[in-house]
Amino acid sequence: MMLIRKRKKLSQAALGKIIGTSGDVIGRYERGDIKPSVDVVAKLADALEVSVDYLIGKTSIVIDKNTLERIEEIAALPEDKRSYVFNLIDMCLRDFKAKNVYA
Q1: pLDDT below 70 — which residues of the chain?
Q2: Most buried one in 25, 32, 79, 84, CB count within 10 A?
């Protein structure tokens, strides 16, 4: 959490203010002195624009809000349309990988 907070150039106090607590409490979360509630983790994820999974260590991938919105839109598509989008993505990824091999 601290790394993302610093990348966003937020102080502990500023992040605390955004989520409705103090900078001291944010510091205690970052040091592992106390564990935030599920509601607080959700607020932190929103404020830092990362997933809850990232904050709790289930993934190391930081997905920005824009990418997450796109993923949600794809997930809401009917199966045939979602499959079409995935095929396009797979095709692009294959092309990028091939270009890297020959670069």
Answers
A1: 103
A2: 25
- CA-based Rg of the chain, rounded to a whole angstrom? 18
Q: Sort residue 50 into left (φ over 0), alpha (ψ -120 to 50) or beta.
A: beta
Say what the pLDDT of residue 59 is: 85
Residue pair 48/58 in contact (Cβ under 8 Å)? The answer is no
Contact status, residue 64 vs residue 49, Cβ threshold 8 Å: yes
Predicted local distance difference test score (pLDDT) of residue 1: 84
pLDDT at 91: 96
Nearest to 4 by CA among 50, 46, 42: 50
pTM of the model: 0.69
Rounded to the nearest 10 degrees, the angle between the axes of helix 12-19 and helix 23-31 is 110
Among the CATH numbers 1.10.150.120, 1.10.260.40, 3.40.309.10, 1.10.287.110, which is that of 2-55? 1.10.260.40
